[in-house]
Every structure is written in C-alpha cells, then in structure tokens.
Amino acid sequence: MDTISRFLCDDHHACDAAFGAAEAAVGADQWEIAAARFAEFFDALERHLAREEQILFPRFEERTGERAGPTQVMRAEHEQMRELLNRLEGMVRAQEGDAFLNHCDTLFTLIQQHNLKEEQILYPALDMVLKKERGALLEAMQRISAPRSSPVAATGVG
After folding, report:
1. Cβ–Cβ under 8 Å, residues 4 and 123
2. Which CATH number fits domain 4-145: 1.20.120.450, 2.30.40.10, 1.20.120.520, 3.40.50.150?
3. CA 63 to CA 56: how far, in whole Å?
4. Are the CB atoms for 98 and 26 separated by under 8 Å?
5. Is 144 exposed, middle or buried (0-12, 13-18, 19+ CB in 10 A)?
6. Taking a C-beta distance cutoff of 8 angstroms, is the pair 14, 26 a contact?
7. DSSP letters along 3-57, please?
8. To the nearest 5 percent, what fractions of the chain are helix, strand and coil?
9. d(CA 146, CA 52)
10. DSSP state of 130
11. How many whole angstroms separate alpha carbon 125 and alpha carbon 48?
C-alpha cells in the first residue's frame, strides 16, 4: 500500500463485500452460512474501526491538536454502526430475516455516508498530515486484529 487512503479504501471494499455476503445468505434463508458470513463482516468492520480509533485518529489528533473535529464525528458514527451491528447480530441468532434485511438497509446507508466522508475528506487529510510516518502506521494497522469476534459463528444459530 502506498497511502493510508488506499489501504483504508481497500478495507472499506472488503467490509462491503462481507456485508453483502451476509445479507445475501439471510435473504436466501441460509442461516448457517449467514451466521458465518455475518461473523466475517462483524470482524472485518471491527478491525477497520480499531485501525482508525487505535492507530490513526490518536496520531492525527496529536499532530493537529484537533480533538473535537472530524475524528470525533467519525467516532460517533462508529458507535452508531456498532449499535446496529449488535442488533443485527441478535437477528441472525434469532433467524429474523425480515428484520435483519430492514436493518441492513439502515446500516448500509450509514456506512456509505460515513465512508464517503472518510474517503473524500478525512483520509486525504491523514495522508497529508501523517505522510512522514505512513509506513510505520500502515504496518501497525496491518497488525490490528478485530477487538472481539462475533459469537454468532461460534455458537451457530437456531
């Protein structure tokens, strides 16, 4: 990866693909597959959020002295995503397909709006402000694993 933007945009695409796979499995009433795909999405999204919250945002805030700006907004949106993610996890466990698909629309919209802000505004700023330490930051982000794994796949459904 040559930039923070490229690394994180690729991460967005991987999360989107995992989300789509989970949604498709639920739509086909393939609950075991849905549980596995949702767990993959859950882990991918949590890993992505951890990369930003644990590595990039603190460094950006330290460099700019700005703690109440764009990173604060992104953190608040991350929490909204986590709330929906946890609701969706319960719906997969309970095999509530219609509710899951309705909430997917909400989460998808939130994620797309969030990603747009990051990709067009925040990531270019991160690339500029953190240019000298980009290599070390990319390595640190690659070492981040998901903070917790979705228990849906481990316990199965039904």
Report:
1. yes
2. 1.20.120.520
3. 11
4. no
5. middle
6. no
7. -HHHHHHHHHHHHHHHHHHHHHHHHTT-HHHHHHHHHHHHHHHHHHHHIIIIIIH
8. 85, 0, 15
9. 12
10. T
11. 18
What are the pLDDT digits (tens) for 86-114?
999 999 999 999 999 999 999 999 999 99
The domain locations on the chain are 4-145
From the list 111, 73, 76, 105, the residue with the least C-alpha distance to 91 is: 105
pTM: 0.90
Q: How far is the C-alpha of 45 from the C-alpha of 135, rounded, in Å?
A: 22
Q: What is the mean pLDDT of residues 76-90?
A: 97
Q: The tokens of 11 are what?
A: 């991460």
